[in-house]
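ok so for the tutorial part 2 we go from a plain amino acid sequence to predicted structure tokens. step 1 is just haveing the sequence, like this:
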Amino acid sequence: MVSRADTSRLAEWWRTIDRLMLVAVLFLMLCGVLLSFAASPAVADRIGVDTFHFIKRHAAFLAPAAVLFLGVSILSPKQVRRASFALFGISILLMLATLFVGAEVKGSRRWIVIAGFSLQPSEFMKPAFVILCAWLFAESKRRPEIPGSLIALILFGAMAALLIAQPDLGQTVLLAGTWGAMFFIAGLSWLWIVVLGGVAASGIVGAYFVFPHVAA
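step 2 — the prediction. this is what the tokens look like for a chain of 216 residues:
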């Protein structure tokens, strides 16, 4: 147990961390490793690489991911917001660059190669986008003079446009669902529900006619 008299950053982290969430995430990481042991050796043997090739790669990425996960959990809310602003800005620039210099795979440009590593910028954009929109929705309730909901709507529109330009409709639908759920929890009016529902329905119909793989 950590003493209440201990005011260190680590002690404060242990007192405030959502321990159930922490255990759940660590458990999911462990499940991923176990599933890799169960499924990947057969695939590795079939393509002629080391039996534990994919397991080693999984572990190599999992270790820094766990360190990053724990490191971010120690940050204060203000530090998380600042980091999200920086990550969001960098992700936007990379997503724009991907449209011009990204690798084209099956008609889509979603990946960009940096220093020999292939990155999908939209994956880095998503957590930053969620944090920023959650903060904007909260600020619009706490300080009505700030048009937080409108800014969040503009951010969503910009992100959706970039994803559709790639095109990546799956990510667009996922982002729309997440953003809509946050907006609903924040207390949007029924007028907003009707308007956004109509826009979503129109988007689905439009995707059916514009993108052949959606119609298929």
